[in-house]
Each structure stands twice: as C-alpha cells, then as structure tokens.
Write a structure and sequence with these properties.
Strands 3-2-1-4-5-7-6 form a seven-stranded mixed β-sheet, sandwiched between helices. The protein has a domain of 180 residues: Rossmann fold (3-Layer(aba) Sandwich), CATH 3.40.50. Helix 6 links the parallel strand 4 and strand 5. It is built from ten helices and seven strands. The chain has 274 residues and is an alpha/beta fold.
Amino acid sequence: MTDLSLPKLPGSLPDKRQVAASFSRAAASYDSVAELQRAVGAQLLAQLPAALPPRRWVDLGSGTGHFSRALQARYPQADGVAVDIAEGMLRHARELGGAAYHVVGDAERLPLREASAELVFSSLAVQWCADFAAVLGEVRRVLQPGGVFAFASLCVGTLHELRESWQAVDGMVHVNRFRRLDDYQRLCAASGLCVLGLDARPHVLHYPDLRSLTHELKALGAHNLNPGRPAGLTGRARMQGLLQAYERFRQPAGLPATYQVVYGVLQLPLTQGK
C-alpha cells in the first residue's frame, strides 16, 4: 500500500473518535438493518457516468464493504481502495473481500496520494464530516483530471418525525443534525469540481412501532452522536410521551421515518486553473 499512503496524520477530533467507535461497534449488526443504505447506494451507483472505466476507485466511508464489492463487480479490472474511519468496519469488510486495500482514514484528511484515483464513491458517510469543504478539497486532490466524485449524504429534514416528536416531549437534542441542501450546493459550486448533478430526494421507511426504528438506528451505529445530547437513561414518562407524539405521524404502512438524501456527481476538469 506504499504507493497510495501519505505519512500518518495527527489524531482526529473527539467527536470523530466517537463516530468511529460507534460504527465499529455496529459492524456485526449493520448489514442486517441496512435497507436504507443499500437502496441509496444502489441509486448512487446508477448515477455513475457510463463512460467511466476507472483504473482505481476509492470507496470513501466504505463501512462493511457492501458497495466495495459492488464496485469490484462493476469494474473488475480496477484496483479498489476502501477507506473508513472505523477500524471495526474495515476488519469486517476485509473478511468479505471487494477492495484490494483497506485503509483507516478521515475523509477530511485522506491518507491517499494526489491524483491517485479516477473515481471516489461515497454513500451515506460524509454527513458525519463537520467540514465538507475539506472533504471536497481532499477529493479534488486525490482525483485524476476527468475523475468523478459521486456521493450520497443526508440533509436537513432527515428524521423530522422523530425530531418533532422529541421537541414535543422535552425540546432537547435527541436526533443527529445535518447540513442544509443549499450548503451542499454552495460548497460544491465553490469546490473547483464541475457539478454534473446535485439534488435531494426523500426516502421514507416504515416501522410497526417506534422501538423498531430506534433499534435499527442503534444497530447501524447512527443513533444520536451530537454534542449536547442528553446524558443518561431516558425516563419512562418521557418515553411514553415520545410514543404518543410519534403516533401522530402513523400511516397505513406504519410509522414513517423520512430521510432527505442528497445525491451529488461531480467531476474534476481535465484542465485545472491555477
């Protein structure tokens, strides 16, 4: 892996260590409850330009490697690099194959060489990055001219039913915050990458009860990771209030959980301005 790696960078911020630890713990249970992740990643794969034969692709925020394996099947002649901040996820992915290399790395400070890949694919990972401009800068550095960055992320409006239900109970932060769509638009426009496509689409899942939703979020490692979240156990009275508040959203298919998914396809120009 010496042809790809840069010198090791200083440690990540504490919140990133927490994200890494949470997803590492979820590695074994993740795939069993990853309906949203599979659907979104499949949509993102379908948006990749047809005339894109990468010699090397990077799966950024690769998780258990499901889409590393899909990329390997789609581009069998290419070298694949799976990058994730969670070592537990990478250990799990390595056992299942897909990428040729598995690298622990932070999307805001990628441990990859300049101009080392033709495709960076990232599905439902960059929403955990506080500095998306830094992610875009790193992707631009790593891409070869003409290379593509395809990402799916989450924006404001995600899990609004759960957020509004908690607001009705105690007004505290119980649901992860996400950036706005216009922030993605502004940052992508200023990135030096050509925007081939950028839009947000709702993806709604339904659950028989609230416990099923909260169990899934925990199994995914995606439960509340915000600074300032409530500490300790949630009291029985508050949980009963939450159940009653969420029931207002019930539909014939069950309790809805809406995810606002941002899909972006960007390309590094063949010639770059200085």
